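Suppose a classmate hands you a notebook page containing two proteins, each written out with its sequence and a corresponding row of structure tokens. How would you begin to make sense of it? This section walks through that situation. The first entry is reproduced here exactly as it would appear on such a page.
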Amino acid sequence: MSGLKELNWWQRAVLVACLCALALPLWFAARNVHRFADGDWTITEGYVHCASNDRCEGTWGLPGGQQGHGKITGLAFEYDEEQVTGIRLYAGRDWAVTDRSDLAFHAAYELAGAAIGAALIASVAWLKSR
């Protein structure tokens, strides 16, 4: 990429900043892949509390007698209103989802977004350096 020398200093700084910004979706994707591989199937203990759809919190049991608590993604507000207990979850110590495949789906589109962003940044840099 000898053409990068033709970029102004501020264009190179913007290029580096944009490439560094791509680390964010990659970090989220890695987190979701780790959660997909590292979580456990469990059920809620007690009632869940929901502020609105998909903004629910609760408590669940984990293997080894541990207990998890935190946000539960994928629950509807009705679970709080109807005081449903024993909801099946895929969870870790401070996170839970109702559908494990959501983690893989989110990781896939975050990786795709990072790849598209990298291609866009590289193509703009290449065009500007000509």
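The notebook's second entry, a different protein, reads as follows.
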Amino acid sequence: MHSWSYVGRATGLAAMVLMTASLTACGSSGPAPDNGNPASQPQAKPTGAADDVQVAKAAEAFMKAWMFDPADVKTMCELETKAARPNFTDDGGTVDGCVASRKTLAERTREPDRAPLRFTLDHVQDVKASRKHPAGKGVLATGQRDGEKPFRYALRLVKEDGRWRVEQDEDVYEGRYGHTADPVADVLWSMG
């Protein structure tokens, strides 16, 4: 009788060890191994709600300043990081230099027959540093006019001088990302 209880305990213990090992393997929440594939690099991470709101507001203001006709070039420049401004190598990215270099955007006129442009912002997330840009927040900006196809931009924002500013803006190519709801991390990683 004693040997049967020993065998029963050993069998039970072995079963418990196997069950624990299988549950641990199935429930593993560690990061996937990096296999050198760029697609495995960008991973969305949840962010704080207060930052998300500020990022979305800054991104929307930037897109409106840039895309509305005529462009509000001064606001657009103020909402970019110094390094993202086209005049960075000339004068360190001053707002005045940026405005001067983007003068033609301010000369665009609104086409009266086109419907008004509106934007939606979503998929705010942490984004890793890329080859050219620091880590920050990513957001997807979708522009739409009634009767026209929507267009999308992925934006990287970073804090500079205490404000969220656009560091990178990339067109989301519909040919590659047309069926992807959240291409932000991948676009910012692969283009930057």
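A careful reader of the second entry would note: The longest strand covers residues 118-127.
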